[in-house]
Design a protein that fits this description.
This protein is an alpha/beta fold. It is 37% helix and 22% strand. It is built from 16 helices and 16 strands. Strands 1, 2, 3, 4, 5, 14, 15 and 16 form an 8-stranded mixed β-sheet that branches. An 8-stranded parallel β-sheet has the order 6-7-8-9-10-11-12-13. The longest helix has 18 residues, at 203-220. The two termini are 36 Å apart. Bound molecules: N-(iminomethyl)-L-glutamic acid and fe (iii) ion. The site of N-(iminomethyl)-L-glutamic acid (NIG) has 13 residues, from helix 4.
Amino acid sequence: MKKDGNIIIINAAEIATPRGRSARAGASMAALEVIPDGAVAVEGGTITRVGPTAQVMAELRAAGADLSTYETIDAAGRAVLPGFVDSHTHLVFGGYRAEEYAWRLKGVSYMDILQRGGGILSTVRATRAASAEELFALGRRRLDSMLAFGVTTVEGKSGYGLDRETEIRQLEVMAALDRAHPVDVVPTFMGAHAVPPEYKGRADEFVDFLLAEVVPEVAGRKLAEFCDVFCEQGVFSVAQSRRLLAGAAAAGLRPKLHADEIVPLGGAELAAEIGAVSADHLLHASDEGLRRMAAAGVVATLLPTTAFSLREPYARGRAMIDAGCAVALATDFNPGSCFSESIPLAAALAALCMQLSPEEIVTALTLNGAAAVGRAERIGSLEPGKLGDLVILEHPSYRFIPYHLGVSTVEKVIKRGGVVFDNLNHGGTRC
Ligand code: NIG
Ligand code: FE
């Protein structure tokens, strides 16, 4: 009789995984472990053994394991990796902004659209008008799509309410999605995503409101693990971001930042100063900012699809790793600056436009993504004691992830030892 969460993957062309229980920084990002003819055993949802197939099977037999309780998958010709961690998304929102994308194609800038009451504020209007049921149904479809790309854990931000009620609704929807869907959802409170019309020109008072009226409830009800802020010229200043994140940290929400995305404002330096878990975007981060982030152990979360979509210069991924930073890679899926949940597109851009190697890209999508959501102890690598979250590629090497441009090479996804996506059921796409 098979038991839930028991699975053995055998004969894999390779097992490719970073190792560790915290982010890998600098040159160590390239140190993937690659085991030819590999196997992974998962018992009750947790990895128990990883190694060459013959060795793993011999160990299981020697330990007296009842192999009839395990599902067995023959992964011959296929690579096996940890499930991807998409550590920066805005997945719960109402409405879309296709017309705004068309304006941007004609040259109107992202920030101009926001200053005129569109952009994030347009999604705020649609999200305030959406019921929890509608947001849940949309979120579930988006998680299905992310899962097919090999994502087993995703971070999601609020920030399309900018009022107490809607911010809480977004976070409650994320909690419901986490319970209902195989993909784990890590919630981040981002009430400081923009200044709402009610507080136009009064960003400081809006920060006061968030700290007094929203953060205590979010933290008290454990609706979020992190607090994020759009630290940007014309949105929240460095001083306002510092004040918000300090107050949120005192309430138990760990800090993250949208930093130096549009102009160099000193977001990277602020992230280092306050010991943020991650600083994200960083298109215009200074050399000093990179040095300080490396020294402070802040994960630099890069979102190349956003730079692509906004036609902005890419963050200096190569320089960050060379400066000793730990880099994570995420999609930034949202309805405005980056309407793409595609992991392969982000990976290809990281390779071609940020000069990351395939090995660094795997580490950035797995262990370092896990560190950026505070879960590197439990996920992000294939090692005994970690969750049995993994992907089986339809190709024999991890190198196909950035190489197959914009096309997913994920054939199967396993979450806590159970198969939750199988592309062969969809006819497969092997090219
Ligand atoms: O990460 N820059 C701020 N926030 C998002 C975009 C959100 C939106 O445009 O709706 C970002 O780019
Ligand atoms: Fe974002």
